[in-house]
Each structure stands twice: as C-alpha cells, then as structure tokens.
Amino acid sequence: MKKSKIKNLKLVNYLSVTGLSAGIALLAVPSNAQSIPIPNLFPTGVDSSGTILGDGVADPHYNIIVGTVSSGTVVNQANIPPVWFPNNSNSRWIWETATGQPIKVTRTFRTYFDLTGLDPNTASISGEWAVDDQGLDILINGISTGQTSSGFTNLDTFIINSGFVSGVNTLDFIAFDFGVISGFRVDSISGNADLIGRNARLIAETEPIPEPSSLLFASGLNTLDFIPSDFGVISGFRVDSISGNAELIAETEPIPEPSSLLSLLVVGLLGTVSLKRTPEK
C-alpha cells in the first residue's frame, strides 16, 4: 500500500502564532524609526517611582562628584528660604546636606541614563532647573552645553539635542553658591530617542489578546524579532510556550510511512517553532 508524500514544500503566506503569555502582542510595524521615552530621567527629590522624598533623604538619582557625601540630600522644608521656587509634587530642592550646607562652594550633580537599544543621534532631553545661587553649566558626557540658571526664584528651561553616545550617558549640572544657604533643583526632565531595530517590536498590554492572534509572513525563511526596552534597576526578556502552524503547498507522490515532522528553527532566544503534517487519507 502506498502513501502520499509531500513534494516541493512551500510555506503559505500565513502563520498563526499561539501560546504567548497573556497581555503580549506581536505587531508588524513599518520600517521607519519609532521614538520612545529615554528611561531613568528623574527630577530631584524623588524615588525610582517618582514619589516625593522626605526631608533629609538621600536622592538616589543625583550624585555629587566632589563633596563630603556621594549623593544629593533633600533640603529640609524648614530651612528653605521663602524666596526659593516652592517645592511641589514633581520635585524638591537638594544639596550636600539637609540644611543646605556647605556654602560658598561649587558642586557638580551628576545623573546617569542608558541609551542601549536607542539611536543616540536622535536623542533629545529637556527640563527645568534652578540653583541658589547660580547654575554655571550643564554638561552632556563632559561636553558643555553653555546653558545656565539665573537663580532660585524661578525655573529655567534647558534643551539638549546633541552630544549623546550609545550606552550609558552622564548629565552634569554645575551649581555655585555665594553664601547663607545652598540648593539645587531639576524639574520636568524628560527625553526621547528612536529605537534601533528592524520591523518588529514587543508591545506589553494589560489585557489578554483574543485568540487567534495572527501575522502575515513571507514565503521562505522568516525572522521574528523581539525588541524589549529596560527602564531601570534590572533587565529581562522571556518567551514561553511558543508554537505555530502553517498550511502546506504540496504535490502528492508515494512515500513510505511514517510521516515526518518538519521543524523550523528560529535562531535566537525564541526556541523552536514546529510545523506538523499528517499524510493525506
């Protein structure tokens, strides 16, 4: 007895991807660049969730390059002069100590952010800052931007459109004090840069995706790219229980039993997508 076999196997332009975790969708996107927020840009006086810190708490995002301590400290509300721009729900004044001391010094406050996976040539950052008494300059990766702050009664806008590099970047604010009490403030800081990648991205959503979720694929070898983005502390990426099915275009000729198993190996972290066929009856 003869069995039909598969000859001149081709993949039809349709593949259904199933088994991804709920809340994860794979979407085909245009090849043009996509801009996303730059992670880990924080105003002064907040924690990693953006919540305002209390008096005397160390600021986790702004380091003091030369000083008696390694990080900025939230200035006590009771020590803040009434002429300073008021603290608000976005940011607070910081300095070397909670009492705004020492005075008559120059201090550099440094924050770090990471552009890994982003195009540094498309990066841009803006925000507002103030210093008691004067902001002398803002440096991006050690390069002067020539931007200053006029004082402590209001916030001055800064914009940075160049000087970025791949990977970790530094942003330095140089503050100078004349006397009495010192303070440094950054508010409303944010930035954007284009993703580096090809024509696929990973989008996390809060709701399960209706079944089935499908993509159009080309004939022959296909690639499936996941482009995750990290926003701080620790990074990770995972795909579980991925599988797929496709219709087969074939001609029939006798073949011996048993029917075979075709496996399409997707190179990378994706594992194996298996394409099963059964003999025609």
Give the tags:
disordered N terminus, four-stranded antiparallel β-sheet, 0% helix, seven-stranded antiparallel β-sheet, mainly beta, disordered C terminus, 281 residues, Jelly Rolls
Q: How would you describe what is shown here?
A:
The chain has a domain at 36-194: Sandwich (Jelly Rolls). It has strands at 3-11, 15-18, 24-28, 35-37, 58-64, 71-74, 94-95, 106-114, 118-132, 134-140, 143-144, 156-160, 168-176, 183-195, 200-204, 214-215, 243-245, 248-255, 261-265, 272-276. The strands form six sheets. A seven-stranded antiparallel β-sheet has the order 7-6-5-8-13-10-11, with no helix packed on it. The chain is elongated, with a radius of gyration of 28 Å. 0% of the residues lie in helices and 43% in strands. Mean pLDDT is 77; it is low at 2-31, 198-215 and 250-281. With 281 residues, the chain is an all-beta fold. It contains no helices and 20 strands. The two termini are 12 Å apart. A hairpin with a 6-residue loop joins strand 19 (261-265) and strand 20.
What is the percent of helical residues? under 10%
N-to-C CA distance = 12 Å
Record the strand order, biggest sheet: 7-6-5-8-13-10-11
Shape: elongated
Sheet/helix structural class: mainly beta
Please report the first level of CATH classification, the CATH class of the domain at 36-194: Mainly Beta
| Unreliable stretches covering 5 or more consecutive residues | 2-31, 198-215, 250-281
Give me the count of strands. Answer: 20
SS field, number of helical segments = 0
Radius of gyration: 28 Å
Oligomerization state: single chain
Mean pLDDT: 77
